[in-house]
Specification:
Blueprint: H1 2-7, H2 17-37, E1 44-46, E2 54-56, H3 61-79, H4 85-104, H5 107-113, H6 123-142, H7 151-168, H8 174-178, H9 180-199, H10 209-215, H11 220-240
Antiparallel strand pairs: 1-2
Helix pairs in contact: 2-3, 3-7, 3-9, 4-6, 4-7, 4-11
Length: 245
């Protein structure tokens, strides 16, 4: 719909932000209800680094699902501002989640690693692998200087997909680590807007964060590659957490 409004109807703003947020809330609501109805799904929030520790969200679970879906979707969208930046990080997140899905769906490995066993989670490995493959194919044309762009139709959907996988395999809090760059980008916007409304001053030259470094005269390629390096390290650290209990 966003692309249709922009390309066919020549509406530069595309789909209204309120419509996008409403769609994310509806998606989160539907997913939350499905997970609650599915008696096999554990509704408790697993706490990383702690053996057998979890948090029972009880009646707040659906609100939590909505928050994860909307938050991850918009965070990836905010990161999609430089050529290849968002999709490169999505590929790294996809690699980490491929491993997490596989071990979560393997009864022996999940027992060995002291993580919840999620029946059928191994099938999500294929889904994550498809994101990796499609992402690499897209990056071939989206790397600097880009000849094709992702737009909201890609970034919002990929962010929502990542959030959904995290919910299905009970790795919601690890999403904060593996998607650390996405989190920083979103937080930078929240901080910038909130601080400006309170003081009429800015914390960053401009938000999201990647544009701030551009204003510090970092070349675009340098910003992209350095963010990729950090994202890669975060993905590796996320996998290391499987042995930290």
């Amino acid at each position: 719909m966003d692309d249709y409004l922009k390309q066919i109807k020549n509406k530069a703003s595309g789909l209204a932000p309120s419509a996008k947020l409403t769609s994310q809330i509806i998606l989160g609501l539907i997913l939350g209800v499905i997970l609650i109805i599915n008696s096999r799904h554990n509704l408790k929030l697993e706490i990383p680094f702690l053996k057998g520790a979890n948090l029972d969200l009880d009646g707040l679970y659906i609100l939590f699902v909505i928050f994860v879906i909307a938050g991850s979707s918009n965070a990836v969208n905010l990161t999609d501002g430089l050529d290849g930046l968002a999709i490169g990080i999505v590929v790294m997140v996809g690699i980490a989640f491929s491993v997490l899905c596989y071990v979560s769906g393997n009864i022996k490995l999940s027992d060995y690693l002291l993580i919840p066993y999620i029946k059928g989670a191994g099938e999500l490995t294929i889904f994550c692998a498809s994101i990796i493959g499609a992402g690499l194919g897209f990056l071939w044309f989206n790397c600097y200087p880009a000849s094709i762009f992702m737009g909201d139709v890609g970034s919002l959907a990929l962010g929502g997909a990542i959030g959904t996988v995290a919910l299905l395999i009970k790795k919601e809090l690890l999403l904060i680590i593996v998607g650390g760059i996405f989190v920083l980008e979103a937080v930078s916007v929240i901080m910038q807007v909130g601080f400006f409304k309170l003081t009429r001053k800015r914390i960053f030259r401009i938000a999201p964060l990647h544009h701030h470094f551009q204003f510090l005269n970092w070349p675009e390629n340098k910003v992209i590659v350095r963010f990729w390096i950090i994202a890669g390290l975060l993905a590796l650290f996320t996998l290391v957490t499987l042995k930290i209990r």
